[in-house]
Write a structure and sequence with these properties.
With 182 residues, this protein is an alpha+beta fold. The protein has a single domain, classed as Calycin beta-barrel core domain (Lipocalin, Beta Barrel). It has one helix at 2-36, and strands spanning 41-45, 55-64, 69-78, 83-93, 100-106, 111-117, 123-131, 138-147, 150-159, 162-175. A ten-stranded antiparallel β-barrel has the order 1-2-3-4-5-6-7-8-9-10. A hairpin with a 5-residue loop joins β6 (111-117) and β7.
Length: 182
């Protein structure tokens, strides 16, 4: 009888520890998402002197599913206002690693899967692969908080085991609210 009691107590303790670690993991994931909430809103590239824009680009982020995820849409329009490119992205926290990830669904039918790598506060670095694109494969995508109203976006493509700069833009916050998939 004493052994059964001890086993039951140990089982209850183990179950309590497991539930506590899950809650701790959940709150850690929410903390990661709270830090990432800096990106929420709509952003536009800062205009470059001497480089007239060929159209418009809106990059929007909004929380979904009670803030557990962030949905994003990048929308390019030509000078006539027609959509020429769109992607839809979901950012979240991987429950196994506690790090951000993104999955992107692109106009050309390709999709991206990434995972975050360790980076400094205010910087979110993702390494991933694009599946189904004839132009892109392995890449690194870095979002950097420049200041409260500016976001740096660096895209690097992997070639021969090294990352090479593909695009480096600074975006300015146009609105703190965004509507994704308008």
């Amino acid at each position: 009888m004493g052994k059964i009691t001890v086993l039951l107590l140990l089982s209850c303790f183990a179950l309590g520890q497991d539930a506590g670690s899950k809650q701790g993991g959940e709150s850690a994931a929410l903390k990661v998402m709270q830090d990432f909430n800096f990106v929420l809103g709509t952003w536009r590239p800062v205009e470059q002197p001497g480089k007239p824009a060929q159209g418009t680009e809106d990059y929007s982020f909004e929380p979904i599913l009670d803030g557990r995820f962030v949905a994003s849409e990048e929308l390019y329009r030509n000078s006539a206002g027609q959509v020429i490119y769109r992607d839809f992205v979901v950012f979240g926290v991987d429950p196994d690693t506690g790090k951000l990830f993104l999955h992107a669904y692109n106009t050309d039918g390709s999709l991206d899967r990434t995972r975050a790598v360790d980076s400094a506060p205010g910087k979110w670095v993702f390494e991933g692969t694009v599946y189904g694109s004839p132009r892109f494969r392995d890449y690194r995508y870095t979002l950097t908080k420049v200041d409260d109203n500016h976001l740096g976006v660096l895209i690097e493509l992997k070639k021969d085991g090294k990352y090479e700069n593909y695009s480096d833009k600074t975006y300015e916050r146009k609105s703190s609210k965004a509507v994704v998939l308008q």
